[in-house]
Amino acid sequence: MEWFEWVFTREFRQYLLAHDLVFPLLFLIRLLGVTAIELIRPARKVEYSRVIVYDFAVFLLYQFIIFPIAGYIDLWIAVRPNLPDVVLNLPLPLRVTAYFVIADFGHYWIHWLMHTAPVWRIHKWHHVPTYMYWLAGVRATIPQQVIVNLPYIFAYSFLDLSPWWMYLAIGMFNALQNDWMHMNVAWRFKWLEWLIVTPRYHHIHHSNRPEHYTANLAALFTVWDRLFGTYVDPDKVSEPLSFGIGEKVPLPRLALGV
Ligand SMILES: [Zn+2]
Ligand SMILES: [Zn+2]
């Protein structure tokens, strides 16, 4: 058997799961694969060699400290309803759709809230990078992560009684969704924007022009922006865009959201 055939075997899958290697491997694929895709037709010039080491350190901080702590705090405050059997017996695709719609709707409003003056400080760190590429969106403070998790945990009830791989698929999807939104690609995907957020759509959200401060808040479905008046049509935005918060805040304050 060739090595690449072994990659598709049950043994390989079990080995990855048993050794907690799924997400490290996924990260390696993201690092090589997504960066390669960005190099084909980038939207803007990014000095990867300058930013990737720093962002990787932020990624480790996020992965091993921020995300677990936020999850621990959520254990105490998150609401996780017990849904009746009639809902749990609905076909899986229907429940997965309900999960994404409900979680994303909640995410939209929490994002909206974080762009209001009293709570902006806990989200500011996400908007610090002055460049956009797949790993630039990894910054989330503990309070941000705690409240963003809430609608996802709530909606996760729809996935009760799902096959074992569901939590894995959702975790991978979340990582890739964040990469996707921030990716440095010049593709337009206009047709796709009727349904979901694309890189250029989310880049406008990171723009440092005052008229874009609360533009395109959606994380997955663009319908929320259209419904609630935060939609900015990427076709009507002139390039070049520039990013960042335009102020110097010490890193510990940014990372803690204080
Ligand atoms: Zn934001
Ligand atoms: Zn972002």
Automatic annotation (TrEMBL):
InterPro entries: Fatty_acid_hydroxylase, Sterol_desaturase/TMEM195. It is a multi-pass membrane protein. One of its GO terms (cellular component) is endomembrane system. Keywords: Lipid metabolism, Membrane, Oxidoreductase, Transmembrane, Transmembrane helix. The chain crosses the membrane at residues 21-40, 52-72, 92-110, 131-158. It is found in: Endomembrane system. One of its GO terms (molecular function) is iron ion binding. GO terms for biological process: lipid biosynthetic process; membrane lipid metabolic process. It holds the Pfam family FA_hydroxylase. Residues 97-230 form the Fatty acid hydroxylase domain. This is Putative sterol desaturase. The lineage of its organism: Bacteria, Pseudomonadati, Nitrospirota, Nitrospiria, Nitrospirales.
